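Changelog entry: the Succinate dehydrogenase hydrophobic membrane anchor subunit record was regenerated in this release. Current contents:
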Amino acid sequence: MPDFRTPRSKVIGLGAAHSGVGHFIGQRVSAIALFFLLPVFLVALALNSGSLAEAHAFVANPLGAILTLATLTAAIYHMRLGVQVVVEDYIHKPGTKLVLLVANTLLCAGLWIAVLYSVLRIAA
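Regenerated structure tokens:
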């Protein structure tokens, strides 16, 4: 396979980071998971949430808790990967990019911890 890099880039070691495929697969897997989970979650929630007590009972049910955790885990992971791509593509200052990527990861981790805590609190 021909190498299209310039002689200078070969010397300083610039080239592909070799991490794009894992990111691509993660986005596709989470999108496929959401394609199946989200409609099931929304229909189940709509059928079981006429009131706050019914929504509480839905999440307290083991299947409802598992469905809620699986759906929101896939959604938060997919969101994190999507925002990461936007930041990497459109933010060019290295310091700003680093701050935004760390903030994105921490925000998504915080959201997931809040979801996990809430579901476990209701289900217990």
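The chain has a mean pLDDT of 90.
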